[in-house]
Design brief:
The complex is a heterodimer. By secondary structure, chain A is α/β, with parallel strands linked by helices. Chain A is built from ten helices and ten strands. Chain A is globular, with a radius of gyration of 18 Å. A six-stranded mixed β-sheet of chain A has the order 1-2-3-5-7-10, sandwiched between helices. Chain A has a four-stranded mixed β-sheet with strand order 4-6-8-9. The model of chain A has no long low-confidence stretch (mean pLDDT 93). The longest helix of chain A has 17 residues, at 80-96. Chain A has two domains: 6-192, Alpha-Beta Complex (2-enoyl-CoA Hydratase, Chain A, domain 1); 196-242, Lyase 2-enoyl-coa Hydratase, Chain  A, domain 2. The relative contact order of chain A is 0.12. Chain B is α/β, with parallel strands linked by helices. Chain B has one domain: 2-enoyl-CoA Hydratase, Chain A, domain 1. Chain B is 44% helix and 20% strand. Chain B has helices at 30-44, 68-71, 76-95, 111-117, 145-153, 155-164, 170-175, 188-201, 207-216, and strands at residues 6-11, 14-19, 51-56, 61-63, 100-104, 107-109, 121-125, 129-131, 167-169, 181-183. In chain B, the strands form two sheets. A six-stranded mixed β-sheet of chain B has the order 1-2-3-5-7-10, sandwiched between helices. Chain B has a four-stranded mixed β-sheet with strand order 4-6-8-9. In chain B, α1 (30-44) runs parallel beside α3 (76-95) and α4 (111-117) crosses α5 (145-153). The model of chain B has no long low-confidence stretch (mean pLDDT 96). Classes of the chains: A alpha/beta, B alpha/beta. Chains A and B meet through α4, α7, α8, α9 and α10 of A and α3, α5 and α6 of B.
């Protein structure tokens, strides 16, 4: 598919020549990658393509240029409410997407841009990353930094620089700007080489963890384990352990 | 009571459970989990016990997790039983109305890590490594790992560890909040002992208080 406001490509990783890492890049650097309605529907279309693509095991969400990851909903959008509603739908889609999504964050992140980064499963940030003015990010933030009080303090109106974001757990890791994409590629490669069904089911269980009791969470885990137990991939994985080699998962 | 795969000793007001299948790197089979459950019941009903330490002998392994040899021989009903057994024993660690300190003396993987996550406070030897490599064999952490890791580390770090199946060293585990203190291997046993005594002197299941105690010993 041809895109105008994003680019979409599949990449290989350090761990495998197979192009199993799907990379969506927000590509409107001239407006700090602000989310227009067109851009939101292109992200949506790219995600649908990735969902259907069995080879794609993990998604990287990054941005063109080093200045800004995403400045939130485009202020030029004539119907702001409508655009925000679309943005929230995309955030939810990313959060619940059946393959893990890693945000590669550079530069300025604000408003729905913060929400978009937080909707991803994990975040790696460049040293120049700076989070500000979150719109709907508080709920997501509390799950990520673990401490609701910290979430309040963090977003009391001031900007949060990369180092602070790392120390409170808002981002998984901060790296020099020129190492961002290689670091993300490494993490993506690790995920892509794991058993796909196991990754998908563990994301489901992790996502539910803040909504259910431990006992209920345990039942979700049991259900997931029983699904894994029926796969060829589990037999291959255990065999590989005993043969002291890397497993070759087929997603079956 | 005497056990085959673990030992459980009481010293004054401390109970010390040691995983004791060194030849299998303390892999957790059904018998080991059942024994752990019984030891916890025994401790639950012993009013003199004010703190529980779970650890293992030596510097090599705390536990490499589920016993894959046993697990891979089970049919679906057997797998279900094994998962439920581990889950219920770890919930017992969670629910025990006494502080539980897990002292990670060596490598802790999969079910070994999940055991530690159910405890109130975790310390590790500098030489220890921890990780949840289940997705690398086609499984998910099924003994509470997907539920407790996000609660302890926050969602982003838990997701990274679980989805990549990564194994990290003790220092990194401390940095991300997976263990509360790292100890030198030479002083590991003695420091853990002093920590347990300090907790027993002022028993609490408040995590913030317990972290204070283990950091101040």
């Amino acid at each position: 598919m041809e895109f105008k406001t994003i680019t979409y490509a599949k990449e290989s990783s350090f761990l495998s020549p197979e192009e199993n890492v799907a990379v969506i890049k927000l590509s409107r650097p001239e407006v700090s990658n602000a989310l227009s309605k067109d851009m939101l529907s292109e992200i949506d279309a790219a995600l649908e393509e990735i969902r259907r693509d069995e080879q794609a095991r993990v998604v990287v969400l990054s941005a063109e240029g080093e200045k800004a990851f995403c400045a939130g909903v485009d202020p030029e959008e004539p119907n702001r409410q409508e655009a925000e509603r679309c943005a929230e739908q995309i955030l939810k889609k990313v959060e619940e997407f059946d393959k893990p999504v890693i945000a590669a964050v550079t530069g300025e992140v604000s408003g729905f841009g913060v929400g978009l980064a937080l909707a991803c499963d994990m975040r790696v940030a460049a040293e120049n990353a700076k989070f500000q003015n979150p719109a709907e990010a508080a709920r997501r933030l509390a799950k990520i930094v673990g401490r609701p009080n910290v979430a309040d303090v963090l977003f009391s109106g001031r900007a949060v620089e990369a180092k602070e974001a790392e120390s409170v757990g808002l981002v998984n890791k901060v790296v020099p700007t020129d190492e961002l994409l290689t670091t993300v590629n490494w993490t993506a490669g690790k995920i892509a080489s794991s058993a796909p069904l196991a990754v998908r089911l563990s994301k489901k269980c992790v996502n539910k963890s803040f909504e259910v009791s431990i006992a209920e969470g345990n039942r979700l885990e049991l259900d997931a384990i029983l699904q894994c137990a029926r796969t060829e991939d589990l037999r291959e994985g255990i065999k590989a352990v005993f043969e002291k080699r890397s497993p070759q998962f087929k997603g079956k | 009571m005497s056990y085959k795969n673990i030992s459980c000793t009481k010293e004054q007001n401390k109970a010390i459970i040691k995983l004791n299948r060194p030849e299998a790197l303390n892999a957790l089979n059904r018998e080991t989990l059942s024994e752990l459950g019984s030891a916890l019941d025994e401790i639950w009903n012993a009013p003199e016990v004010k703190v529980v330490v779970i650890t293992a002998e030596g510097q090599k392994a705390f536990s490499v997790g589920a016993d894959l040899k046993e697990a891979s021989s089970l049919d679906e009903a057997g797998v279900k039983e094994l998962i439920e057994l581990g889950q219920s024993v770890y919930r017992k660690i969670d629910d025990l109305p006494k502080p539980v300190l897990v002292a990670i003396n060596g490598i802790a993987l999969g079910g070994g890590v999940e055991m530690s996550l159910a405890a109130d406070v975790r310390v590790a030897s500098e030489t220890a490594k921890v990780g949840s490599p289940e997705v690398n064999i086609g499984l998910i952490p099924g003994w509470g790992g997907t539920q407790r890791l996000p609660r302890i580390l926050g969602k982003g770090k838990a997701a990274e560890l679980i989805f990549t199946g990564g194994i990290i060293d003790a220092k990194e585990a401390e940095r991300i909040g997976m263990v509360d203190r790292v100890l030198s291997p030479d002083e590991f046993t003695s420091t853990v002992n002093r920590m347990a005594s300090a907790i027993a002197a002022k028993p609490s299941t408040n995590r913030a208080e317990l972290i204070q105690v283990v950091k101040s010993v």
